[in-house]
Write a structure and sequence with these properties.
single chain, 175 residues, alpha+beta, Aminopeptidase, 34% helix
Length: 175
């Protein structure tokens, strides 16, 4: 009789390991193309965000977490120093939440809330005054998580992005 191996039931939020950033890029590209018809430019943006995270990492001010159950990746999020989009200069006292993603099979388990809360807790500990993030209006589940954490919508605009019309939104959390 073969022994069956039990799968871990606990979901941990851990730092990225080799292969995790590639997974973040692949999953964002595939998921957002399938669910929201975003084109390859979105995947390229995610790749740039991941590369910038590695190249600019300030471990006391920035972090990435992978939600994992054993070897199974279920989600991700990053918290980085916010930068001026035109100059690339760091915006003092402002963090940016980036790349929140949950696998569809992981929804409804509270993992998204845990990832966003981890960002808030880390940002407070690192001395940030606020966190900003960018999302789209149709990402209703993510928007609900942000709202429940205390984020407020501060700007929205219609634009063409990643091959389609979207309502771009900027949200902020005062710490």
């Amino acid at each position: 009789m073969m022994a069956t191996m039990e799968l871990p039931t606990t979901v941990e939020l851990r730092p990225p390991q080799p292969g995790d950033l590639g997974w973040i890029i692949e999953r964002h590209g595939a998921f957002y193309a399938a669910e929201y018809a975003l084109d390859v430019h979105f995947e390229a943006l995610v790749a740039r965000i991941c590369a910038d995270f590695v190249d600019r990492l300030s471990a006391e001010r920035e972090a990435c977490w992978i939600a994992a159950r054993g070897a199974e990746r279920l989600g991700s999020v990053m918290l980085v120093r916010a930068r001026d989009e035109a100059t690339g200069d760091v915006r003092e006292g402002v963090a940016q939440l980036r790349l929140l993603l949950l696998e569809p099979r992981a929804r409804g388990l509270g993992i998204g809330k845990r990832l966003v809360r981890r960002c808030s807790d880390f940002a407070r500990g690192a001395g940030y005054a606020r966190i900003t993030l960018w999302t789209q209006s149709e990402l209703t589940s993510a928007r609900a998580i942000y709202s429940a954490e205390g984020y407020a919508l501060v700007h929205s605009e219609a634009l063409t992005s990643f091959g389609r019309q979207v309502i771009s939104e900027r949200w902020e959390l005062r710490l």
